[in-house]
Write a structure and sequence with these properties.
The chain has 354 residues and is α/β, with parallel strands linked by helices. It has 11 helices and 12 strands. It has 2 domains: 124 residues, Aspartate Aminotransferase, domain 1, CATH 3.90.1150.10; 221 residues, Aspartate Aminotransferase, domain 2, CATH 3.40.640.10. The chain has a 7-stranded mixed β-sheet, with helices on both faces. Strands 9-10-12 form a 3-stranded antiparallel β-sheet. Helix 1 packs antiparallel against helix 8, helix 2 runs parallel beside helix 8 and helix 8 packs across helix 11. It is globular and about 65 Å long. It starts with a strand and ends with a helix.
Length: 354
């Protein structure tokens, strides 16, 4: 039985080119970059080069790139910084943003788009940080970050100070959206290797010059860093073509699902969405049992974010008025084909007709 993987929003397979980088810097070049002997200096230069290459993709400066263990650490380096007094976040942020802090939550509409007027009214002289993810990890909605950035800049200008600053969790966004810091208008960007066909256990934080001090001790993960740099560069080379391909697959899949049952509801904004994430509510099913039925036929997808506890319902779906108990998330990637989706649709039809 062929396995069909449709959970790319949780974890992407490691690209072969990334794996070569990991192997190279795990075996042939493996010195501690914090040491002073010649091979260690070479490792330090490799990390500096990785920063430069990533900065070129983001249109940033290399000294604004900081490597971390992943998106969660990147988020928390910003959120739990000592500068913060009052933080504003959206009500559908990733759990790594929702859980560790107290914050004002911006409500969203039924498509997952944040209430910009609420944001404007919530910013005070005590507000130090606004954090809104660029692409939601469960429903794929793209938030209006340029408009959010303008609101934050206007508030900063009106208050005549350094704050508030703007952070975005772009872990789900970078695969299909251009992440250019000036166009986004943000001060901080979190990225994660395992969402972009890169290594597990490595990520990065972009922190604009003059904002906060980033002090992350410990031995640098040289193989992971070099793999991440390759993954980000390679993704940028193929992003536009791959985005067009995945967009066609998603449109096809939605149309065919509605032919199976017109009552199926797409959760999220169909005008502003990342093409790789599709969350749907299917009437008269139990989502967990449905996923198990698909799995028994070699199809792997999910009911919610993998970062939620097993017993938790999806607060994202609750916020947009959808029901976790009958909702499924399919997420597509580089290995997804139209043939795969035809097979999935056939299986879904068989399950629903029983």
């Amino acid at each position: 039985m062929k396995k069909i993987y449709l959970d790319y929003a949780s974890l992407t397979p490691i690209d072969k080119g990334v794996m070569k980088q990991i192997n190279k810097y795990s075996t042939a070049e493996y010195s501690n970059p914090q040491s002073f002997y010649s091979s260690a200096v070479s490792s330090k230069r490799a990390i500096d080069d990785a920063k430069e290459r990533i900065a070129n993709v983001l249109h940033a400066h290399s000294d604004e790139i900081f490597f971390t263990s992943g998106g969660t650490e990147s988020n928390n380096l910003v959120l739990q910084n000592k500068i913060n007094r009052h933080i504003i976040i959206s009500s559908i942020e990733h759990s790594s943003v929702m859980n560790p802090i107290e914050a004002t939550h911006i409500p969203v509409d039924n498509n997952g788009m944040i209430d910009l007027e609420f944001l404007k009214k919530s910013i005070t002289t005590e507000t130090t940080l606004v954090s809104v993810m660029l692409v939601n990890n469960e429903i794929g909605t793209i938030e209006p970050l340029a408009e959010i950035a303008k609101i934050v800049r206007d508030a900063r200008k009106n208050f005549g100070g350094q704050f508030p600053l703007l952070h975005t969790d772009a872990c789900q966004a970078i695969v299909h959206l251009p992440i250019y810091v000036e166009k986004l208008g943000v001060d901080f960007i979190s990225l994660d290797g395992h969402k972009i066909y890169g290594p597990r256990g490595v990520g990065m934080l972009y922190a604009r010059r003059g904002t906060i001090d980033i002090n992350r001790p410990g031995t640098a993960n040289l193989p992971g860093i070099m793999g991440l740099a390759y993954a980000i560069e390679f993704n940028e080379k193929i992003r536009e073509k791959e985005t067009a391909r995945i967009s066609e697959l998603k449109e096809y899949f939605i149309n065919e699902l509605l032919k199976i049952d017109q009552r199926i509801r797409v959760n999220g904004d169909l005008d502003h969405f990342s093409p790789h994430i599709l969350n749907v509510s299917i009437p008269d099913i139990d989502s967990e049992f449905f996923v198990l039925q698909l799995d028994a036929r070699g199809i792997e997808c999910s009911t919610k974010s993998a970062c939620l506890k097993d017993e938790d319902e999806s607060y994202v779906l609750r916020e947009i008025g959808a029901n976790s108990k009958n909702s499924i998330r399919f997420s597509f990637g580089r290995n997804t084909t139209k043939g795969d989706l035809k097979s999935v649709l056939k299986v879904i039809t068989q399950i629903l007709q029983k």
